[in-house]
Design goal:
Blueprint: E1 4-13, E2 16-26, E3 31-35, H1 42-49, E4 57-62, E5 65-66, E6 75-77, H2 89-99, H3 104-111, H4 114-117, H5 133-147, E7 151-155, H6 163-180, E8 183-188, H7 191-197, E9 200-205, E10 210-216, H8 231-243
Parallel strand pairs: 3-8, 3-9, 6-7, 7-8
Antiparallel strand pairs: 1-2, 1-4, 4-5, 9-10
Helix pairs in contact: 2-3, 2-5, 7-8
């Protein structure tokens, strides 16, 4: 079980508040999106949640443990895949284990079983430049998972993909989340993406960024592609646009 609570977090830079009094929660197995315009403080909030930056005030709790300012507890994937071009996919995926002090042979053995689950079988000895954008993102997501097997923070991970690849990886990610029982907090400014993927959506708006609304997406999983063109989908979009 993995639950995340962000409690009354405020963060400033050079005396300017970027986010103010932000409180959100992520339940076990959920995908929750943070939706808002670029520059609204979403990435700053993720940096605080991941422990890379200390908040001016507020706390981050995981399963009741205070992890404020403690990096290494939650995995964090940025917009770019950041795969190392001179390492094989296998060694890229094993990197979090090597950083934690495991031997290369043991780390490779540990990641090997996940390649089939993540649809990456046959890529182990290839290099990032030999893979498509979608496959690179899968490899980056597997590396993220190896860092922490409970909660993933994803900061616009699919924004660079073309529409068809993005649609396919959306379906794949929802499936893999169920399979490996992963909880995900997801940053996006794409309303369609947020509605299709999310159990709940927080709207982070204004300067400084504040949580101004929470929208529950009641469509059952697994989500079908038809949901994207349904009346219910359009109503969620209308509601979000109105509140933004």
């Amino acid at each position: 079980m993995a639950e995340l609570t962000v409690s009354n977090v405020t963060k400033s830079f050079d005396g300017v508040e970027i986010i103010k009094d932000v409180s959100i929660h992520l339940r076990d197995g959920e995908l929750v999106s943070l939706l808002g315009a670029s520059g609204g403080g979403k990435t700053t909030l993720f940096n605080v949640i991941s422990g890379l930056q200390l908040p001016d005030q507020g706390k981050i709790l995981m399963d009741g443990e205070d992890i404020t300012g403690k990096p290494g507890k939650i995995s964090y994937m940025l917009q770019k895949d950041l795969l190392l071009p001179y390492r094989t996919i296998e060694d890229n995926v094993a990197l979090p284990l090597l950083i934690k002090g495991e031997k290369k042979k043991a780390a490779r053995e540990k990641v090997r079983p996940y390649f089939e689950e993540f649809g990456l079988e046959g890529t182990q000895k290839k290099y990032p430049g030999q893979l498509s954008g979608g496959m690179r993102q899968r490899a980056a997501l597997l590396r993220t998972y190896m860092f922490s097997e409970k909660i993933a923070l994803l900061d616009e991970p699919f924004s660079a993909l073309d529409t068809l690849t993005k649609s396919a990886i959306h379906q794949w990610y929802l499936g893999i989340m169920e399979q490996i029982h992963l909880s995900t907090l997801f940053v996006t400014h794409d309303i369609d993406e947020a509605v299709f993927l999310s159990d709940r959506i927080y709207l982070l708006t204004g300067k400084p960024g504040r949580i101004t609304d929470e929208i529950v997406v009641r469509e059952e999983r697994p989500r079908r592609e038809e949901f994207r063109v349904s009346g219910a989908f359009l109503e969620y979009k209308k509601e979000i646009l109105k509140k933004l």
